[in-house]
Fold these 4 entries.
Entry 1:
Amino acid sequence: MQCKYCGTQITKKDTRCPQCGRAIVRPEKNIRPIAIAGVVIAFVGSAFPMIMNSNADLKFQPAFGFMNYESPWMWYSFLLLCVLSVVLCAVKLEKFSIAPTAILGVLCGITYNNVCLRHGAPGMVMGLAPILIYAGCAIGVIGVFLDVLKFKKKEISTDYRYTGHKTVWQRIYIYRWFYLMFLPVLVFVIIFNYLPMTGLRYAFMDFKSGSEPSYVGIKHFVDMFGLSEISKLSSKQFMRAFGNTLTLSVIKLAMNTFAAVLISLLLHEMKNIYFKKSVQTIIYLPHFMSWVVVASIFKMALSANDSGLVNSLLMSLGVIDKRIDFLTSNNLWRGVYYVVNLWKDTGWGTILFLATLSGISPELYEAADIDGANRFNKMRYITMPALANTIITVFILNLAKVMNLFESVFVMYNPSVYDTSDVIQTYIYRQSFASSGTPNYGYTTAVGLFKSLIGCILVLICNKASKKVRGRGIV
Amino acid sequence: MRKMSKFAACVLAGVMALSLIGCAKADGTGNSASVSSTGTSVSASTSKEADPAPAEIVKPEKITVMWDGTIFKEGDNYAEEFYKALSDALGIEIDFIRPDHSSYAEHIGITFNDKEKLPDVVILPANYYTAFAAQGNLWNMTDAWLNSETANSGRLVDAAKQVIDGWYVNGPDGQKGIYGFYPARGNGCITYVSAAWAKKAGYATEDSLPTDWAGYQEFLQKMKEANDGKAPVLAAGGLFNREAPYTNYLPEFWQGAYPDFYQDANGNWVDGFATDDMAAALDRIAWGYQNGYINAAILEGPSTSDVRNKYFYAGETGVFTYWAGTWAYNNMTNLAKNGLDTECWKLMPLKEMGAYYERMSPMIAITSACKNPEGVFKYFIDTMLDGGKVQMLWQYGVEGVHYEWNEDHTKINGLVTQSSKGSEKESKTTKNLFEANLKLANFAEVDPYTPADEVIDISFNFFNKYSKAAPAPVSSDVYNDYSATLWTERQELSAKVAKGEMTGAEAVAKYKEDCEAISNAVIASFK
């Protein structure tokens, strides 16, 4: 947020502008997100079945919903109305969004009624769709009413320099060249980031290579969470991969950040500039090597066979009399993985910290010298406090990426260590391409959707944490 | 300044728009390169509409063909010359799509996601052939084959009937039919023993090699002791091969055990991993691994090429199970390149094994998207074994490019390959798609085949004598849903047994406990 008088960046903790000293008036939260959240819930709900078999061992099959409803235009209309509602909320015409939101409920009712008439049979029960859609519609409409009534709401102050009293269209015209610059990016993002999201519908379908996608409701989620007898093993493997992903990512992140900070501090203390630069260059280099090459190097070094360097060395020195299974032991694999990651990425991770350290005023150190502080005390009372904000920022930014673990594991793991190494992305890969049958993209899409959901939640948590720490979010 | 900003905005917008266009030019089939035999870009479908009268078979003008690395590769051995010669010989413009061989199965999976953009002809791994035939993605060529010139030519080899019987798989109607073709047998692996290693261990001749499991155990012990304690065995790809028949790279240890579903002698479906044979096989592997007779790298996920080049060809291992035929010759030449003794002996299948497995070959199929399947079959597929010039192209390549005739025009000699030309060790072309020894039909005249070395023929003859058909790959909806899950469990349990964390019997019991529901459902789906 900026000071509305002088434009100075202000943090969340500030009560007065550090530049002009004026009191900062913070606007109350706008409550439109409630209306939008309601529509999103209805939108997501439309992917679930309207009615489905009640037998979990049959994976709630058959299932019928919008996606396999005989009149597909009904679902398309539903989705369009969802988009319309959100857009109306976004452009502050929220009261007009009540109508499309209400129509969503009507469409749901009509479809549910027809689906029941056509496919209703003993053993069939109501699915999640009607519940989610009606709940979403209710939240959407209530949210709008709260907004229209301006309950707790105040207009968000906007910087006068950027808005004046002009309309949106006038502002767009004024900044048309910026919009022109932005246009290709927008198209790019829509084509490559948003359009592929339409593929998420396959999480509710059987989509095997060579056969037409067919709607199966929550079948894949039943497999993922082991709700039927036949899916216990799939679920066990999935949950293990999920746990490993979190464990490997978080520990790796903590270790890499700690090591990067440590090395940054050591480099910062170095007086010989040539030596310092040389060390920096050497520790940056592994970052530019591909994971395939890095894995090959470490596999050669750590292999338990006769050509493994480390084992051979330890054996010849008499340290061990039996070769150590660095790469095939569940007890050791994670340690090896962390070490390889440290070797590859620690150097690169020091860049931000070194940049922060170089920004610390030398006067502080000079003052500390005068006060008689030793090196440790200078590090404790000057360097570390200056670095703290960067450490937290880097940690938070990387925490948002913890679910994206693939290449580094894929090139190093093997069936002996699936227990400790298999992560969600490698699990998805195996389900897609390592089976001896044709892959079912529906299941892997469902797993991917779950992973994205967790990733999204982590990003939101990090965003919140970032706002707390830095005064501004990361998204 | 304002003008500069506008100008900068326009330029930047233009650059980004161009980059978008660049990205949008990606081929619909992923990363695959699409090269027309005539050098022009062509569409993915035949230009001829299907003829309404089935009796009149129209020659297609243009077809698209998706092929793996089993024919000459672009940049490796004058593939473009082969495309052009084949196109000229058939009078059909052929658009070859050549994805990377190592990820071909992935490309197949992706390609068949969009049925509108399927090529007319595609070569499929055996398991995909079974699955896609059942899904109705392939054209039923049973009648076309039975009435084809090749089938009625009288030139089919003796083994052809048995091979062709294996092509019958379930179609979408549940009826057995032929949905693919391959002009050769599937081939298989035999075990090569380094003579240098064996001689050191006291085995003077090939005949003295062991013939049963007890003898094999003693043989491995002696091989290890005599060769500085090095583990003599390492299998390509790890404990299991990723493709059917799965156990063919470590046959002495797996013996009669087969880790996937198959039909037993009584026609009953069996989950091979849940059998006593499997428990015994796992114990044999544990014995080999823990005593250092199987190289420890086997559990570290070695690639096939690493096992071949960095271990067997480097003299690090002495027992290597790999493809029969041309690879017997390749083994010799590669050992020679490394200055090692080139002599490799063939290990007789152990008494407990009975025979080596002959795999089901990959299948050349016409897809459901092909608008003129009868024409494509008659003019593209049936000509592969025409006994004349088209068979020469598929079997040996292009005259003057891949081979040349001898003076009296009775035999051919391979020419130096494109990639090895000018290198220190030039290698010569030995075949195109299939080996002379494996072809299903003879030439109308005498086959002009000249083996690069007699070991190739010896190896083939040995394999033909001591091989049996591997269980056919299976497919069903339930199997496809849980195949990856089952294989993950099988691989994990096998590795645990190898490391000594459990016994074979315990692994099988655990497998039954974890996988019984899936196994039963899969078997029910086969029934």
Note: Chain A touches chain B through 56 residues (CB under 8 Å).
Entry 2:
Amino acid sequence: MAEQLHGNAKSPAPVLEIDKLARRLGPGFALGPVDLAIQPKQIVCLVGHSGCGKSTLLRLIAGIEQPDSGALRLDGRELAGSGVFVEPEMRNIGFVFQDYALFPHLTIEQNIMFGLRKWSREDARSRVAMLLELTALSAMADRYPHMLSGGEQQRAALARALAPQPSVVLMDEPFSNLDRDLRERVRHDTIALLRRTDTTAIIVTHDPEEALSTGDFVVLMKSGRIVQSGTPRELHDRPADRYAAEFFSTFNRIPGTYRKGRLHTALGVFPCRLDVSEGSEALAFIRPQAVCPCLAEGALSGSVRSRSFRGEIEQIELDVEGLEAPLTMRTTQRLHIRDGRLSFSIDPDTVLAFAAA
Amino acid sequence: MTMAATGSGRNGRRRSGAVWLIAAGATALAVALPFLALLVEAMHGSEGLWNHLFSTILPVALRDTLILLAGVGVLVAILGTGTAWLVTAYEFPGRRTLEWALLLPLAVPTYIVAYTYLDILHPIGVVQGTIRTVLGYSSPREFRLPDIRSMTGCIILLSFVLYPYVYIATRAMFLTQPASLIEAARTLGVSRRAVFWRVALPLARPAVAVGMSLALMETLNDIGAAEFLGVRTLTVSIYTTWITRSDLPGASQIALSLLVVVVAVVALEQYARRRQRFAAGAQRGGKNFERQRVSASAGLLLLMLGLIPVLIGFVGPALYLATEAWTRIGYAGLPPRFLSTVSGTILLSAAATLLTLVLGAAAAYAARTRPGGVSATAFRLSTIGYAAPGTVIAIGLVIVLGAFDRTVNALAGSWFGISTGLIFLGSGAALVYAYTARFLAISAGGMAAGLSRIPQSLDEVSRTLGETASGTLRRVHLPLSKTALAASALLVFVDCVKELPATLLLRPLNVETLATHLYGEAARGTYEEASISALAIVLIAILPVVLLSRVGSERNLRQGDVAPLPRSLPSVQQHHVA
């Protein structure tokens, strides 16, 4: 699937096209311009720290807020653009709110039925029954929202959004109101449901792990702009810049000097391509798990500063000669360290290099 | 009191604060007493009398009361909800002003609006005269508007001063509604205009119910408007049965029937609010609904529309009263007894306010410091007066205090050979008692609301630092709930000044209040004499409106303050206590 996700010319027509969409939000702060194309049946995660504009982008797509400029097309139909603004009720876009926004005066069944006013009675009934079944809420149909648990409310909100068969479902932090244990399961069920119903979905989240594990396609935003978009693996393994790198993982930042396509550091020489002049300062980004303990002579070594055992892995901080900050490593091996010293090697393939800030 | 609490605290056997429990219990008993007396007295009535009542007075009174309630209920719901939606859903020039101006009719008591319009719309009055001149008629015989002295007139006039109850509650509900509910509806295919009918109104139903029931209780309490406009309600019947026929059992029986109607109104309110908890549960912060900007012409239209109830309910009567009072003063100066009337009103109201505050604080504080079934029951009993019409409490007190006064007088006569006269009924004490019983809900509710904002941990800290329950109240709670107390005091005081039905029945012979003076003059048909008293009442009654507009500001509401409702504080606040 990953191959067709790079919005190149050969991929099928996108469901949703966002074209230089922008909105002023306040003095010195704005969203966009944002460009994005979303393929059918994809689950897209919009991720970023709070205030990066991801929720605003979602609200612009839904039509709850109006863009100042740019265009928005759904299934080839212009939703917003020069002089065009389609009201949210005419867009055929589903929205799952962070607080679920279930109507407190309606039962779960009535909530799901809410968007099906124009359907025939039987069609609406069977549609609701099917969604209740899919979300395992059939037993709750006649209850009111406050009588449901958080996870059930979330499913009800999703069922309600899916009921009118929207082209796209937008979800604003749909799992953030749930307990940690519950969150994992609800997320799993939600994704399964979206897949089973062939739904295109955009999910906003601030949790990097959630974004990587949930999305077919991840869009990282910062200060109202898209930093990088791509498959979860691309964003994790080949981040476009330091911000993207540090958003998804932790790194050891090792200073070095760039010469002839290589970065020379205290921990060795790493091949890399950087758009900086010869001899300028640069940083090697080394993942803790790329630092592997080894017994061979001649390898690098350092003295153990601290060890913290975390179950599956152990995190060790090493003082290495030539480095100011301690080097962090993570390993699944059970180490027997004698005399406080440890030899290690570095997997050069996973090392990233960025120009010094 | 403090000593006793300290002593018991030191023993460690009895929990501190028992004094408050006793005070709250005594207060509850005092409030409940007139209702019990009513029950006993009503059963005294002979069967023949009950039959007479049943066949002649009750059917008409009951029918008229129910028609009046239905009419006022529907009209206040429409006016209150419509105006609330107007100022929360749309943005237009003048909206902020309109927002508080819509509260102003609250300052005009029902009997004053009836009395002013009786004169304004008189067949040979200003309005009808102008209409005839414009239309080219020369005498009232050729053209006149339908008589305002009718059921329809009464419904319309009452509704235009009572709709703010619905407006306040519903507006607060609209303002605190999370925007996501409206937005969810829109993404599910509901247009901006249809949102009102499909989401906002169903959600606001509990608030509409609260506002409506308050307006209906005011309607049941009203005696002046119904009498001036010739509608024979239950309240009017109680008054005439007692005053003109001196038939106490008969009055008690009608009063009990009236209480049944009150209970029905409360039950209806509870039924309509049965899902309020759900609505409250949905308010989990987040963004609020944004107003829709409209074009200049549409904005002007909305403003005009919103000003109609303000004009009818406040500006018209106030202007009329101001000009009448001005003419009267310019012509003959202040009426001779005006100053004594004012001082009498203030004295009675201030005494009642003080007592109401103290007892209300006791009821609320007992529920806080000794939570449990006893204090909760005492709190509820103390606040039942808010739903009871003034005439009902007054008749109950006539029974209780009459018996008491007679007993004391007889005992004093046989033991000491002196006559004490009527200790309670002859002084203003009975009236102060009635005011307190009726308005205790305001101070108890206000105090409970104030206390509920003080974290329980502060009580605990104070107690662990060696302070008693009473000391904690004095050193922690009172300083922290000063504002709530002051607000309650203002509301109680103004309600006492406005109170008419209980005052009419219980005032000593030589005492007049502004309200009874107005009633007496209006009953004699000397309207212009009464305009000064009426104007004074309206001016005083504006004070709580100012308070309400502050408490009800958008910022305060959205910060999660309780919707301010003058008469419903108890019904809202009971949840904190229970």
Note: The first strand of chain A starts at residue 16 and ends at 26.
Entry 3:
Amino acid sequence: MNDMTLLERGVQTDDIKISARNVEVFYGDTHAIKNVNVEIQDKTVTAFIGPSGCGKSTFLRCINRMNDTIDICRVKGDILLDGEDIYDPKVDPVQLRAKVGMVFQKPNPFPKSIYDNVAYGPKIHGLARNKAELDEIVERALRRGAIWDEVKDRLHSPGTGLSGGQQQRLCIARAVATEPEVLLMDEPCSALDPIATAQVEELIDELRQDYSVVIVTHSMQQAARVSQKTAFFHLGTLVEYGATDRIFTSPEDPRTESYITGRIG
Amino acid sequence: MSDQHILSAYDRDLESIQAMIMKMGGQVEAAIRDAVRALETRDSDLAMKVRVGDRAIDELEQLINEQTARIIALRSPTAVDLRVVLSVMKISANLERCGDFAKNISKRTGVLLESPPIESTAATVRRMARQTELMLKDALDAYIHRDPQLAESVIDRDVDVDQMYNTLFRELLTHMMEDPRHITACMHLHFIAKNIERIGDRVTNIAEQTVYMVTGELPTEKRAKADHTATETIDFGA
């Protein structure tokens, strides 16, 4: 059991990055999230798993207030980022989303050049004083997105001309360009082939050195491969949350066991 | 939790490897029983039958290995399913080893038949063998009924086998000191007793795997090593 790769998978810090307390979400009359309490660690990949409609994406979207854009959505309870309530009226959601980046299911590059896709965020947040600094930020982000070598000679061709896997890594580069602290990923690989999936998973593992990564995935094998902590959601509640290797070998709740083993719940 | 997977072929795969374990368990039980009966009744034909029969046990183990590898490759088992597959692999390896011990007992029986029996030891060997047979039966029952309490009781009973082995060890030493002409037979009897004792250890492993499969945790080691027979020497000057 003292295999290096298993040890490396261990969570390296106990620092809590995000703390959710008694979170409830309603879409109109629908009670989508019921009293969720969870503490997400820094420099850790946390996977949210669960059947369709269990609320895992809804909860993920609460963490950078993406649900604000839905009129009928109401969020109750507290979500703290480094101890500060992100739903406090003083918090600017745009600033929050610079700190809490997001990558979506379908790669969605802007209809602009590869360079501009990445430079857009740093520009509007005023992270670069001049062109040279911006170039530097773009290169760093593209390197961190593990796509630099593939695009460095065509930075000014459109981002939409890349392959699906490259587009997704471009979106990850775009998300990390604003130096976020948390990266939310909503099924980042579901539109990718196995090779591109493996590249993105490798990237997620590298990103863990610097960020707290939260990933929603329908692939339990992916959750098992990339995450150190796993949270299982079912019918809007958080059923079980713990170390990924424990969840996948000896889950405590029978509902978790039913779901991950592919049984009728 | 439901017993059934959404994918019913997965259930059939898991059932089939467990059925093979039960079949293998039955063959190993019979091998141990026959090996000990052949020794008691000085039946060289029965001993030979056990030696030949071991091949079937080995083949079954091979088949189980192939099937479990296939399930791991195709189904990526998790949680209880993973524990079932892992326990099947380990239990089959332990059963295969028990089969080897039975075969070895039969080999030595062949040699023992060439010298006169050493009467006083027969009863202890018989009791030891009976105890391990019962332990194996209960270990397999515990496995198929998913009964960790029964499995724990099997683990606890191994200490009796060890004690009987230590008693026999001393008896055999005494015989050999009394009459050096008994040394050949006593050495073979000692190895037979050792084989039975090793079967007890393997059966304990099987019971531990059952506890792991059901609860997700291996039982804790409760037994203290109190016996010193293994480091004992004899003083011939006495």
Note: Chain B has six helices and no strands.
Entry 4:
Amino acid sequence: MTASSAVHDISIVLAGEAGQGIQTIEQLLTRILKLAGFHIHATKEYMSRVRGGTNSTSIRVSSRPVQAPLRRIDLLVPLDDKVIPHLQYRLTEETIIAGDREVVGDIPRLQHVPLMQPAREIGNEMYANTMALGLILGLLAVDAGVMEQDLGSRFAGKGEEVVANNIRAARLGHDRGRELRESGAIRFAEIAAHDNGNEIMVNGTEAIAMGAIAGGCQCITSYPMTPGTGVITFMAQHQHDFGLLVEQAEDEIAAINMALGAWYAGSRAMVTTSGGGFALMTEGVSLAGMLEMPVVIHLAQRPGPATGLPTRTEQGDLDLALYAGHGEFPRIILAPASLQGAFAISRQAFDLADQYQVPVFILTDQYLVDTYYNTAAFTLEPRQTGRFTVETAEDYRRHRFTPDNISPRGIPGRGQGLVGVDSDEHDEEGHITEDLELRVKMVDKRLGKLARIKEALPAASLEGPEHCRWLVVSWGSTCPIVREAVALLGRADLAQLAIQQVYPLPAELHRYLAAAEQTIMVESNATSQLGRLILRETGHRFHQAILKYNGLSFTVEELVDELQKCLSVS
Amino acid sequence: MNFDMGKIDIAWCPGCGNYGILTVLKSTLAELEINPRDLVLVSGIGQAAKTPHYVRANFFNGLHGRALPPATAIKAVNPQLTVIVTSGDGDMYGEGGNHFIHTIRRNPDITAIVYNNMVYGLTKGQASPTSQPGFVTPLQVDGVSAEPFNPLAVAVALNASFVARTSIHDMELTRRIFGQAIRHKGFALVDTFTPCVSFNKTNTRQWYKEHTYVLDDHYDPRNRTAAFQKAVETGPWPLGVIYTSPPKPSFEENLPVYKSDRQPLIDRQVQWDRLAALLDGMKG
């Protein structure tokens, strides 16, 4: 199975210590490869440290669209000697290792490429990175002119000398790569280029942030926490263009309470965080439930408990998002599977929150936020956001009972009425009450919104026959990896169900599950959190589960292997 | 302007100092001719935090200790609103201590009136951050040993833009200070002594009267060193405007969104063309 995918793909890994600039090279490389017309998927794994350790970026260059990482490495470019042991498990008989003996050591099968000495001659050992970039592009026969033009514009702000040195380093690397390719020392299958002029190169963080802007988000308040920080950073970088209020709060408690204040006063607001930070926000989630206040929460998951593995990935906080906040109240949890999904869901989250006056979670993870690939430019049409607030009349009551349980939401200073909200149980005007009959009516009103939400949310996407022997179910960022593995297995009796709408669950879910003979759940956590949610909500118990929780995302080959094991059980 | 709610059920004990604060607050708002529709009262939890239910205005009665973050955001997204926080010593200085520090640093144009009765009322008589050493409660059975929190000294240390203390036994002074605080541009703190008739038998109305004095006209609140001296005085406690910082921009004025455009954030639209241009830039 793996061999057949090698026809279309080259899996390249660049790795070195934190602080060696791997991330900068990743951004440059993915962009230049995209300009060259290739399909690209790039993802990184890194350690929670500013210097040292081993960080790697995996770039998949393909002749067809790719949205999933590979385990195998075709070309490894190590920038120090710790890389090989770190990535040993991904090396195959065919892996080519191209690097400088000076830093990697005299390892077997090394294709020695001088990087350090030429870099020093140019002026700084850091130029070894740019040489490595050139080397990879030369090996892939990417036009040197495209490379140099892009480096020129990228480093333009840093002065002529930096531009010239980088171009010189890249050209040296490119020449060396071309020589190795032309001499046949290193040879890859040719990757066909395509016209991708209408595609963008984007990562999950950017997709979430731009989706929020398109969703009318004006305000983001957060406390930095990996891997959620990227969204507020992106919005800070673009705040002048988009008129965004960006505030780094003193803690996550302040962040979510600020967001609730902003929504109350008529602005759309969000927070971005990860598990530990979100844990502090839970009282604010409960407050949103009681005030019937919209709020959007981007929760980028990383492995816990506690500080866990700060820079790695997991789908381990579904239970946290599902149960966060004391008391009973409705919520919506959406988990984008792709970058298109990240943009669309992030945008939609603001309308859903506004319309139903509930907290809406965008549940991502480190893998998704840090993953780049080329995809069609996001659709902005229709260029409008839903409008769900009303101008208040003199007799306005914020929590007025209505047939659909949704009270028209007014904002202070816009209309003739007054807008009051209270964290205590309250009457229609928002004033404290201990009228216990009213209490029951208010609980029913709040929870009654859930039925409306279920009707409004999109369906789950099923790929393959509705009546199948095997149904593989996954959610969020894991779905595209499962999709490729299922496609590689190429079995007519195998279907895939991808869930982006995690809560409330899609109405037709139970029908799909019941129609399959055997069901398999794939999740990046240890206890099958979605599997247990589905059991609770539908009574369906999955026959098998593939669970991963070592801090890394699934890979295509790994899922092919695991699914084959599942399919051999019957 | 009428801020009166008419006949309502108020949850405070007969003789509570909070009634005086409520009366002064409503009459001050009327004097300032603030429109109730453009006023938002924000509070957390506690007896003082119930005040928004007793004033005819918009209100956001949130969580314990969390009055300042929503108040900051409400003012930021619509600077046309007048935002006043009514909070107790436990709500503001205990549960909300971190927000107290950082809100002063941000300097939003809001007023925080802290009803300081040196005891917890709603939870029935435990020590508060401002309870005095030796104060015996059902929970602090051998008396409070922790150093009392000094909100004024902290505020002066943070260069707060307006720092005052009043005591509700002097309603005229309180009216004057509330007025100045609400008119002040930037964060205004008014620590307001008020007796708790049910749970604090030490710091009574009479005690506040005997242990306070009003700063005279010669006192210059712009002198930060003198303000520190006044802030740490405890016997007797000075009342009046303790400190005003040199003029500085408010949080809202510092926000890039208002640098070149004063239109409230809530009235603005998505910049679709710029978003399309940003996406175009990602094509290569």
Note: Chain B touches chain A through 54 residues (CB under 8 Å).
